[in-house]
Every structure is written in C-alpha cells, then in structure tokens.
Automatic annotation (TrEMBL):
InterPro entries: Aminoglycoside_PTrfase, CotS-like, Kinase-like_dom_sf. This is Phosphotransferase. It comes from Cohnella soli. It comes from the Bacteria. Residues 34-274 form the Aminoglycoside phosphotransferase domain. Coiled coil: none annotated. Signal peptide: none annotated. Transmembrane segments: none annotated.
Length: 335
C-alpha cells in the first residue's frame, strides 16, 4: 500500500508505549489509505494512529495534539468509558513524536457498526455521558469552537455560488436548479429561529458553561463492541463546543434519516440529559441546515462532490421527513 509505515518505524513508535509488536497492518478510512495501524502484541491488539490537525482551527499540529491529549486525560480521569483507552508513552504523555509527526496509541476495539435501535440508544447515552461528564466534572479551560458561526460562513459562500455563472457540469446545474433554492429557504428558516431571544440566551449560557464535544460523530467513528457497548473512536478533534451542534450532526451523520434510529438516539440521550423545548428547537434548527450541500458545492468538479450531491438528491424525501420528525419532537417537549 502506498505511503504505508515501515515495520521498523511502527516498531520504533509502539515500543515507546511499552509494546512489542508481533505483526501489524494498515487500515484505510473513507478519506485516507493509512488512517490507522493495527498492531498485534502478546498482550493484545492496539491502534497506532497519526494525529491529524484540524484545518478549521488556527493553532498548529502540536498545540492541537497537546490540547486533545489533555482533554482525553481529563475524561479518562473522570471514568468516561465510551472511548478506547489511550496508552501513556515512556515520557508519561499520551502521545509521542516521530519524524516530526505526533502519534498516539489506543486499545483496539473489535465489533460492528451501528445496526439497530438498541445501538442508537446506546450511542445517545454515550453522547450524553460525554457532555454531562465534561460540563459538570471537569475544569474546562480553552477556546470555545463556534460551529454556528462557521456554518454561517459556509452558508454565505453557498449563496454566492448559487448566484454565479452556471457551472459547466450539467449534473451540477440540474441539482442547483432543483434543490438550490430549497436549501436557501431551509437555512433562512433556521437562522431566523436562531435569533429568537430564548435560543440566543441558551447559546450564551452554554458558552459560559461549556462541554467537551467529539465533533466528528459519524457511522465510521462508532463501534459496537462484541459485548454490545458503544465506543467512539478518533478523538483528534475533541474540543469545547456546542452540544446542540454535536447532537444535530450525529443525527445527520449516523442514522441515514431512519426515523426509528433518530428517535432511539434521542431517547438514549434524554435518559441521561433531558432536553427542554428551547433545546429541542435549537437542535431541529441546526439539523435543518443543508451542510452537505454547502460542502459538496465548494468544489463542484470533484468526483466526491458530485457523488455527495447525488446522494443528497436520492435521499431528499427522507431528509424532509426527518425534518418533520424533529418538528414533532420539538412540540412534544414540556415547558
């Protein structure tokens, strides 16, 4: 496999975490050919992963690695058990530097992907546990990442593209004609709701008492272990941010617009963290934002963008029904 790590380099890195590798193989993700290295040892199987810097943050790779490791350590200290255990290196840190790149090592989780309503209830409980544990038990210091402001920026770019010269690609033109205006209308409605006094007050209170969010909850980042427990993997982007943005993103990125799965995730979440009507209204408004369309139309000539727009088109009726479901869920909340 191109650009894979050599056996000697893998051995050099994992030995700093007290491991003696017997064998190893590179595992691909949706975006990277060598996203993680599975390392088998006499004491178990582990994941060796290069830390990936978020381009959405102004800080450098090392600062982001240190911040993520500090947050993970705080969660482990508080007994949060919905993530693989990170190993400490021979320096006592949860990461090591090799050839100028930071790496970390966790236990390897065997299991399956999200499949049924029970899995989604468990994921909801895991998310609620993350938000409650970090908000109520940890001394939170650091910048608050504003997903909503970033999404407003993406929406402005999308609207500019909608008014520019028609793209050369026929498929993009047809998609824009059929769905572009609807995406703008959905966003307009959400931005109007986000300006309501009760939501403005809610967001202000959240900034004053923030929680940690994983910020990349997708189907690929959730594993149901052989014992039936959900594990959230890939904590490179853990940060202080909005739990409501995280819930909306998790619903979009894991449930495939299946109403049973959506209801199960929310049910599991509210077993630990009940949500009032304003909170539900905020989640529904954030869910309605056409974030996939914003992403796909940034680079319309890319094959991945055309594929994403096609998937958006194919799932359009399901998306509308999922928005209606959240509207009903909002109305069901007590005052």
């Amino acid at each position: 496999m191109a650009n894979s790590y050599s056996k000697s380099r893998i051995r050099q890195i994992v030995r700093r975490f007290g491991l003696i590798p017997l064998s190893s193989d590179s595992i691909a993700s949706f975006y990277r050919k060598n996203a993680v290295v599975r390392v088998r040892t006499g004491t178990g199987t582990y994941a060796m992963k290069p830390f990936l810097r978020s381009v959405l943050l102004p800080s450098g790779t090392m600062d982001q690695m240190k911040t993520a490791a500090n947050y993970v350590q705080l969660l482990m200290n508080c007994g949060f058990n919905y993530m693989p255990r990170w190993l400490a290196s021979n320096t006592g840190k949860l990461w090591t530097l090799n050839q100028g790149k930071p790496f970390y090592v966790t236990t390897w989780i065997n299991g399956k992907r999200l499949e049924n309503h029970e899995d989604f209830e468990n994921l909801g409980r895991a998310l609620a546990s993350l938000h409650i544990t970090s908000r109520d038990s940890l001394p939170m210091n650091g910048p608050f990442y504003d997903h909503i402001r970033f999404w407003q920026y993406r929406d402005r770019l999308f609207r500019r593209r909608m008014t520019q010269t028609k793209p050369a690609n026929r498929g993009i033109r047809q998609w824009r004609k059929r769905f572009g205006q609807s995406c703008i209308q959905f966003a307009d409605r959400s931005w109007t709701e986000l300006k309501s006094p009760e939501i403005v007050d809610l967001l202000g209170r959240e900034r004053n008492r923030p929680a940690l969010i994983h910020s990349d909850i997708t189907s690929l980042n959730v594993i149901i272990s052989d014992e039936g427990m959900p594990f959230i993997i890939d904590w490179d982007r853990v940060k202080l941010g909005s739990i409501y943005a995280e819930i909306a993103s998790a619903l979009m990125n894991t449930t495939q617009f299946n109403p049973d799965f959506m209801q199960s995730l929310l049910k599991g979440y509210e077993e630990l963290h009940p949500l009032d009507r304003t909170e539900r209204k905020l989640i529904a408004a954030l869910y309605r934002l056409p974030r996939e369309a914003w992403q796909a139309t940034r680079f319309p000539n890319r094959t991945s963008s055309r594929t994403l727009l096609k998937l958006t088109e194919q799932s359009w009726p399901l998306r509308l029904k999922s928005m209606d479901l959240l509207e009903e869920w909002t109305l069901q909340a007590g005052d």
